[in-house]
């Protein structure tokens, strides 16, 4: 059986790259400042029945590629056993060479399970038993997998109506030293076009102790929830948009949008745009006031397949890269906040890679002395989360912005096995910077480049999100 191509020097093709990784990047702890892990599962130290469950129960990355390889839905999200699903995935994995999932999967097998053979149909049975033996040992629980990955802290993604019970329990649990912090994710509060908006507004209002009838009521409810999250240790908010137009500004239209939505009616497109502009302006000010960063994920086209949405549901692999974001839209939001001294630390994540240079340049117009890189281009996201995408993002940031101030990698994942993505990113980063050194494009001074690598891998994000506050 063929041994792994993932050796000690995977992706490191010259001596400076190898030295930067092994002497600097590799030893740094992980701060996973944006993920979708379930805090309840962390608190209860969830155990997994087998590798099929932990790998395939909720991974839409794998689901998309299994469909693309012609696997029947029964073996993806259907009623087949996890053993059968694992076997189907193993059979298609050799066909995924060139896709980042091929690297991630082999890295996960090697790092968590010590498996040094490539997964395919021939090796699936042996790997099934070897991986399951680890999962059924003390090394295979949710907490153990996090600890083994060198995680210092992580931030989950949480609805404003959440009571944050498990975050509080984890904060009180001296047996688990990894900090698990909530993130304020008010997407449902920004979607008055959805049929269930009125029900959601009532529920959030009840949680906040506010009867939501007017825009002022709605703002009061959200303000109370932001403060509640901040008191629970929240360091950031998160928002997901397609291509919003924040240049639309009309408070009366925003109020009409809310009134229509609370009455169970759909606002007009103009009212929706005005509502989102007004609410992001309000929320951005709250984030600044409460010491929380604002993360904006931009450019996703959600639920493109009506059939898939009807049969499987959301977050099942039916999303794609949408249109680019207009620079004037992002600038309008940041400018309104900055004029009032209410601009929070902001991370911009474009899904359309064509927006990288545009947003780095826009960010440069709004920097100030509060902290280095106050307005950041986030790491290559989702469909860009691969070797070429990471490299392009890092190059653009170096060319147009300040690479040394970059806050580095995250998992953006629901899986406890996703932490090798940090290793992958670190290898890409060291390969890029080391390559510059090897070609004489950067000084051969490891006290400078090594520190920069360490900062990007951990320290910049730790400082940016005020983890020592």
Task: Give a structural overview.
This protein has 469 residues and is of the alpha/beta class. Among the domains are: 48-140, uronate isomerase, domain 2, chain A; 182-406, Metal-dependent hydrolases (TIM Barrel), CATH 3.20.20.140. The protein is 48% helix and 8% strand. The strands form three sheets. It has a five-stranded parallel β-sheet with strand order 4-5-6-9-10, covered by helices on one side. The chain has a three-stranded parallel β-sheet with strand order 1-2-3. Strand 2 (151-155), helix 9 (165-172) and strand 3 (179-181) form a beta-alpha-beta unit. Helix 1 crosses helix 18 (420-438), helix 12 packs across helix 13 (269-289) and helix 16 (356-363) packs parallel to helix 17. The longest helix has 21 residues, at 269-289. The radius of gyration is 23 Å and the shape is globular. The mean pLDDT is 97.
Order of neighbouring strands in the sheet with most strands: 4-5-6-9-10
How many runs of DSSP E, i.e. beta strands?
10
Indicate the percent of residues in helices. 40-55%
CATH homology group of the domain at 182-406 = Metal-dependent hydrolases
Distance between the termini: 51 Å
The 3D shape can be described as globular
- CATH C-level category of the domain at 182-406: Alpha Beta
Major beta-sheet overview: 5 strands, parallel
Which architecture of the domain at 182-406 would the CATH scheme give at its second level?
Answer: Alpha-Beta Barrel
Category from helices, strands and their pairing: alpha/beta
Order of helices and strands: HEHHHHHHHEHEEHHEHHEEHEHEHEHHH
Low-confidence runs of at least 5 consecutive residues: none
Give the mean pLDDT.
97
Assign the CATH topology of the domain at 182-406: TIM Barrel
């Amino acid at each position: 059986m063929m041994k792994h191509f993932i050796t000690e020097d995977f992706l490191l093709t010259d001596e400076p790259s190898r030295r930067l990784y092994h002497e600097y990047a590799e030893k740094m702890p992980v701060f996973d400042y944006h993920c979708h892990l379930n805090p309840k599962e962390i608190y209860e130290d969830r155990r997994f029945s087998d590798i099929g469950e932990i790998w395939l129960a909720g991974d839409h990355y794998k689901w998309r590629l299994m469909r693309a390889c012609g696997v029947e839905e029964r073996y993806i999200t259907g009623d087949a056993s996890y053993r059968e699903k694992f076997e189907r995935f193993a059979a298609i994995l050799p066909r995924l060479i060139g896709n980042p999932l091929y690297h991630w999967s082999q890295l996960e097998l090697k790092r968590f399970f010590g498996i040094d053979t490539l997964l395919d149909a021939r090796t699936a049975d042996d790997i099934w038993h070897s991986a399951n033996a680890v999962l059924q040992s003390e090394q295979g629980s949710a907490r153990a997998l996090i600890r083994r990955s060198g995680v210092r802290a992580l931030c989950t993604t949480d609805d404003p109506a959440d009571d944050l019970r498990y975050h509080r329990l984890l904060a009180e649990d001296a047996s688990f030293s990894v900090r698990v912090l909530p993130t304020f994710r008010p997407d449902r509060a920004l979607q008055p076009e959805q049929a269930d908006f009125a029900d959601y507004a009532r529920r959030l209002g009840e949680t906040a102790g506010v009867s939501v009838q007017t825009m002022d009521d709605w703002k009061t409810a959200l303000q109370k929830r932001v403060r509640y999250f901040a008191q629970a240790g929240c360091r950031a908010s998160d928002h997901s948009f397609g291509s919003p137009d924040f240049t639309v500004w009309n408070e009366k239209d925003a109020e009409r949008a809310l009134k229509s939505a609370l009455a169970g009616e759909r606002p007009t497109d103009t009212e929706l745009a005005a509502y989102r502009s007004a609410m992001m302006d309000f929320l951005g000010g709250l984030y600044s006031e409460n010491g929380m960063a604002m993360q904006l994920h931009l450019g996703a086209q959600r639920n493109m397949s009506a059939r898939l949405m009807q049969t499987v549901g959301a977050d099942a692999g039916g999303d794609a890269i949408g249109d680019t974001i207009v620079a004037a839209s992002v600038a309008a939001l940041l400018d309104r906040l900055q004029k009032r001294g209410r601009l929070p630390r902001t991370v911009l994540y474009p899904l359309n890679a064509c927006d990288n240079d545009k947003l780095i340049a826009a960010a440069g117009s709004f920097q100030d002395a509060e902290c280095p890189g106050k307005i950041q281009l986030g790491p290559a996201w989702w469909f860009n989360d691969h070797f070429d995408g990471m490299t392009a993002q890092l190059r653009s940031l170096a060319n147009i912005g300040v690479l040394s101030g970059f806050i580095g990698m995250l998992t953006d994942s629901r899986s406890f096995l996703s932490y090798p993505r940090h290793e992958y990113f670190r290898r890409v980063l060291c390969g890029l910077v080391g390559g510059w050194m090897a070609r004489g494009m950067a000084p051969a001074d490891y006290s400078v480049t090594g520190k920069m690598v360490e900062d990007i891998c951990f320290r910049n994000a730790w400082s940016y999100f005020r983890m020592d506050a």
